[in-house]
Write a structure and sequence with these properties.
- The mean pLDDT is about 75.
- The chain is an alpha+beta fold and about 120 residues long.
- It has one domain (about 5-95).
- It has helices at about 5-15, 85-90, 100-110, 115-120, and strands at about 35-40, 45-50, 55-65, 70-75.
- The chain has a 4-stranded antiparallel beta sheet, sandwiched between helices.
- It is built from 4 helices and 4 strands.
Length: about 120
């Protein structure tokens, strides 16, 4: 185990007291291996949590102790990203600008997707 993995394991171990114990969707008990550290700073730790039984995915934000207070919140995710490896490819990246979004829309609009898809399905 390298230093980064050891640090992440220590973080997970330290938050297990305040972390969710069971999946709220299916009731499966979480293990420490179900938590993946996405980012950790002196202010907070962001974790990816996926139920191995039903696949429900959460992002868990744990606020670091400030004057002895610890806080945590979790947010269910409905994404097409399923693994923490996929999540880490996008976490911390800059967001798409409005101009980039408009440019992408204009480019895809030129493709005439319904026509493209019907041709694709016929082949």
């Amino acid at each position: 185990m390298n230093d980064k993995q050891a640090k992440e394991q220590n973080i997970i171990k330290s938050i297990m007291e305040i972390a969710p114990k069971h999946c709220e969707n299916c009731g499966n008990k979480y293990e420490s291996t179900d938590f993946k550290v996405m980012r950790s700073t002196s202010i907070n730790t962001l974790l990816h949590l996926k139920c191995p039984k039903c696949g429900t995915t959460y992002m868990l934000n744990v606020v670091s102790p400030i004057q002895g207070m610890v806080g945590a919140s979790r947010m269910p995710l409905n994404l097409d990203l399923y693994t923490s490896d996929e999540m880490s490819r996008f976490a911390g990246k800059s967001s798409t600008t409005k101009d980039e979004a408009i440019s992408i829309f204009e480019q895809t609009d030129k493709l005439k997707f319904p026509e493209f898809l019907s041709k694709l399905l016929r082949n």
